[in-house]
Amino acid sequence: MANTNTATAAKKVANSANSVAESSTPIADNVSESLHHSVDSISEQAAKTEEKVRATAAQSAETMHEKQAQAKDMWQSSALKNYVDNNPVATAGIAFAAGALLSSILIKKK
User: Fold this and answer.
1) What is the DSSP string of 52-107?
2) Among 92, 93, 97, 90, CA closest to 105
3) Would you say residue 47 has pLDDT above 50?
4) Who contacts 84 (Cβ-Cβ below 8 Å, separation ≥6)?
């Protein structure tokens, strides 16, 4: 009889422990599932954002190369380039005079 009472008491304690464990497990499972879902969602958004950034960067690089080619073409056909090529000493003198004038203006302001 003592063994039966002890076994019954042990079963009751085990059942109580299981019911406590079962009652707390769903909350932990829900929190864990919610956090996993949040991490997955953030990961998907980060991947989409990275793809957009990469696509925009590639498009910007292409646009910059096109603009650079246009600027080179404009420079090659400009009258200023022709003048610089034909008169390098005069160009250097003009640049020196402009620099000296700008320096004197900036020094006087102080």
Assistant:
1) HHHHHHHHHHHHHHHHHHHHHHHHHT-HHHHHHHH-HHHHHHHHHHHHHHHHHHHH
2) 97
3) yes
4) 91
State whether residue 1 is helix, strand or coil.
coil
- Residue 8 has a pLDDT of 62
Cα 29 from Cα 39, distance rounded (Å): 15
Dist. CA 81–CA 75, nearest whole Å = 6
CB 42 within 8 A of CB 36: no
Residue 58 tokens, joined: 């590639």
Distance of CA 110 to the CA centre of its chain: 43
* Cα four-point dihedral sign 23, 29, 35, 38: negative
